[in-house]
Write a structure and sequence with these properties.
Order of helices and strands of chain B: EHEHEHEHEHEHEEHEHEHEHEHEHHHHHH
Largest interface: A-B, 32 and 55 residues
CATH class of the largest domain in chain B: Alpha Beta
Largest sheet of chain A: 2 strands, antiparallel
Order of helices and strands of chain A: EHHHHHHHHE
Number of strands of chain A: 2
Mean pLDDT of chain B: 84
Number of helices of chain B: 17
GO cellular component, one term (chain A): glycosylphosphatidylinositol-N-acetylglucosaminyltransferase (GPI-GnT) complex
Number of strands of chain B: 13
Low-confidence stretches of chain B: 1-26, 435-444
Oligomer: heterodimer
CATH superfamily of the largest domain in chain B: Glycogen Phosphorylase B
Radius of gyration of chain A: 28 Å
Largest sheet of chain B: 7 strands, mixed
Organism (chain A): Xiphophorus maculatus (Southern platyfish)
Keywords (chain A): GPI-anchor biosynthesis, Membrane, Transmembrane, Transmembrane helix
Pathway (chain A): Glycolipid biosynthesis; glycosylphosphatidylinositol-anchor biosynthesis
Distance between the termini of chain A: 59 Å
Mean pLDDT of chain A: 88
Subcellular location (chain A): Membrane
Shape of chain A: elongated
Chain lengths: ~290, ~450
């Protein structure tokens, strides 16, 4: 079915409502949808750039694997809590030095925290964890071990899902809390209070401090970032392999799919992107309007 | 659940023949059922559109019903809607607004009952986020076998055609209207020693209130005699209050809170400039109301707004603080130099642009056209659903259509149509009310 009447060609149609026009209400002009724009401002991804970004996801997965490996060693008594604690502390100091070194190159002036404040926070955390470790040790005693394991698995998964991979410094509160919850659950199943303390210190190192350092490396030393990610992934697979071969195989499959196959899919599927824009889109406020308020 | 309100009706054979003789244009009268979740006493564009349109259609001798409800789901509204449609001898179901669940319900059941359907879309939608993907799919399903669709602007038509994958020729553009007698200018209400900018809108993000929060300090610092009069309520009121607090503008920025429709004119006539900062708008009745009261209109260039007023009655700006400030400065300068047309001349130009009479005539044409079309029988409806809406949603809603049809058969067996009472039309005893109406109504 066509428009109601034959429009006279002498008067061109105009896209205005305020003027009576000799066209039926359902008239469709040549210019219909002329302002439609497709795929505006679309980003063209390059495969290896995406792989590099996906490396962060892969190494975070490996971090969780490394943490679980350490816990397994602790639970079986193969790793003394003192060793773990002193190693963690050494790593933390080394990492802190590296962090400062990477900071001083660029934005040292914008960093307000002093070394004293940092050491104060560290001392506060260590003393509180040490003091409360007997309490944490018995925290989940009345809960069955299966429940604790299930809870930990769920929470570590939540940590991985909610982790802010684009801006991991500081790690998001949901992901950090989920990871620490899982750590407390797992640590409470260890044989002694000192084990619990060492495990929690290690958890803080892996889940809270390491992402900050890695983000700094990604920003200031992109060449080394890839190497570090690969190193962590290899460490994760190797460590898990020493305890459970099946786990190591699963982890490596996950790593391959996350860092290699998913980026490939993303780049391939970009061709099918069909995003339409037009005058009906809600306008975006791009200005920073907070300057009027603060 | 259904709250039914009879707006009014005139449909006796005598009145039909009389009005047909009088106009000779309309061959038949329709029994129209307006369906939407939005109606008086709530206020808003859709509500007043339905109300005014219904009034004008009644004047033209059609019978108009109104249905309103909230929270309906697919099937349980069928018995009630069937009862209404049969009792009132409805011929055309006219649903309003894609946000209204009941509108979609009514369209679905009306097609099952074999009634002609019309849908009016009042809003614009994007395509990017998950919620719009889902609502657009629902709209596709709902409109794929609807006889005719009405949009309020050309931009809205483009949007609806894309969202629901429609043939553009079954989509008519019929703008909203403003009652010009409600919005007359009165320059004596303007305080002489100042320039007042009026903003009337809900204070929400989509209306660009954040932009307004940037414009107010910027302009108030430059022009000491500039005042703002802001009508409306909403979560973004906080932003305006903070700005007012920070820049100490309590005497120059007045927040009036929610306004009733009858108070709007009283606020508008106090101002020189009407400002609209919307980020998206299908038609925007507010700027027509502002112009009808003789104000200079400054607005963002979004959605259907550029189609609404001629270039010399509106200053269009980009949706940024800088562009809006520049546009307002230009108009303020013109206002100071006195080179703006008088409110009366603006009113006389605007008053005939959008009238409900015109809207009703054009809507009537849609009804006439729709009444001549056939409603798809079940088998073709199912085929259309499956070919038009994709394999998953199409099949799912085809199943719903079949279930709806079976449910209807059951209802017809339980309570046959012929046993249903027909509603008596409210014409008063011996058509007395009808006579009164004829004498008192000059027109709408």
């Amino acid at each position: 079915m066509g428009p109601d009447g034959a429009p006279s060609q002498s008067v061109p149609w105009r896209k205005v409502l305020w003027e009576w026009q000799p066209f039926p209400d359902n008239y469709v002009d040549q210019r219909f949808l002329e302002e439609l724009r497709r795929n505006e401002g679309i980003r063209q991804y390059r495969y290896w750039a995406v792989v590099k970004e996906a490396g962060f996801v892969g190494q975070q997965l490996s971090c969780v694997a490394i943490f679980i490996t350490l816990w397994l060693y602790m639970e079986q008594g193969l790793l003394a809590p003192e060793t773990l604690f002193w190693t963690s502390l050494t790593c933390a100091l080394l990492g802190y030095g590296l962090y400062q070194a990477l900071t001083s190159q660029t934005e040292s002036c914008s960093d307000h925290r002093t070394h004293l404040a940092d050491s104060q926070s560290a001392a506060l955390f260590l003393s509180f964890t040490f003091g409360f470790s007997p309490v944490l040790k018995t925290l989940t005693e009345s809960v069955s071990t299966d429940t604790v394991y299930a809870m930990s698995a769920l929470m570590l998964l939540a940590h991985l899902v909610s982790f802010p991979y684009a801006h991991p410094s500081p790690p998001g509160s949901l992901s950090l809390n989920a990871a620490l919850f899982a750590s407390v659950c797992l640590a409470s199943r260890l044989p002694g209070a000192l084990h619990t303390f060492a495990m929690l210190t290690c958890a803080l190192l892996v889940f809270a401090l390491w992402p900050c350092l890695l983000q700094r490396i990604r920003a200031n030393a992109p060449g080394q970032f890839t190497g570090v990610c690969v190193g962590v992934c290899v460490g994760g697979v190797g460590g898990l392999g020493s305890q459970s071969l099946g786990g190591a195989v699963l982890l490596s499959l996950a790593l391959v799919s996350v860092t290699l196959i998913c980026p490939l899919l993303l780049v391939r599927l970009q061709r099918h992107k069909d995003n339409i824009h037009g005058p009906w889109d809600e306008a975006e406020i791009r200005e920073d309007l907070s300057r009027f308020l603060h | 659940m259904g709250q039914r309100r009879k707006v009014g009706s005139t449909n006796t054979p005598s009145s039909q023949s009389e009005s047909a003789d009088a106009s000779k244009v309309h061959s038949r009268k329709h029994n129209i059922c307006m369906v939407s979740d939005f109606f008086y006493p709530n206020m808003g564009g859709v509500e007043s559109h339905i109300y005014q349109l219904s009034q004008c259609l009644i004047e033209k001798g059609h019978k108009v019903m109104y249905n309103q409800s909230t929270a309906t789901t697919c099937f349980h509204s069928l018995p009630l809607l069937r009862c209404v449609f049969v009792r009132e001898r409805i011929t055309v179901v006219h649903a309003h607004s894609s946000f209204s669940a009941m509108a979609h319900d009514a369209l679905f059941h009306a097609k099952t009952l074999g009634l002609n359907t019309v849908f009016t879309d009042h809003s614009l939608f994007g395509f990017a986020d998950v919620s719009s993907v889902l609502t657009n799919k629902l709209l596709t399903v709902s409109l794929c076998d609807t006889n005719h669709i009405v949009c309020v602007s050309y931009t809205s038509k483009e949007n609806t055609v894309l969202r629901a994958a429609l043939n553009p020729e079954i989509v008519s553009v019929i703008p909203n209207a403003v009652d010009p007698t409600d919005f007359t200018p009165d320059p004596s209400q303007r305080p002489p020693d100042r320039i007042t900018i009026v903003v009337i809108s809900r204070l929400v993000y989509r209306k660009g209130i954040d932009l307004l929060g940037g414009i107010i300090p910027e302009l108030c610092l430059k022009h000491p005699d500039l005042h703002f009069l802001i009508g409306g309520e909403g979560p973004k009121r906080l932003v305006l209050e903070e700005v007012r607090e920070k820049y100490q503008l309590h005497d120059r920025v007045r927040l009036l809170g929610a306004l009733e429709h009858k108070d709007v004119r009283g606020v508008l006539v106090q101002g020189h400039i009407f400002l609209n900062t919307s980020l998206t708008e299908a038609f925007c009745m507010a700027i027509v109301e502002g112009a009808s009261c003789g104000l200079q209109v400054v607005s963002t260039r979004v959605g259907g707004i550029p189609e609404v007023l001629p270039e010399d009655l509106i200053t269009l700006c980009e949706p940024t603080v800088r562009s809006l400030c520049a546009g307002l400065e230009k108009v303020i300068a013109k206002q100071r130099s006195g080179s703006v047309p008088s409110p009366t001349s603006i009113h006389s130009r605007v008053k005939n642009l959008y009238t409900w009479k015109n809207v009703a005539e054009r809507t009537e044409k849609v009804y006439d056209r729709v009444a001549g079309e056939e409603v798809l029988p079940l088998d073709r409806r199912l085929r259309r659903l499956r070919s038009h809406c994709g394999p998953v949603a199409g099949s799912l809603f085809a199943l719903f259509a079949v279930l709806d049809f079976l449910f209807l058969l059951l209802l017809r067996w339980l309570a046959p149509d012929r046993h249903m009472d027909m509603a008596v039309d409210a014409t008063g005893p011996n058509g007395l009310w009808k006579e009164n109406r004829k004498n008192s109504d000059a027109g709408c």
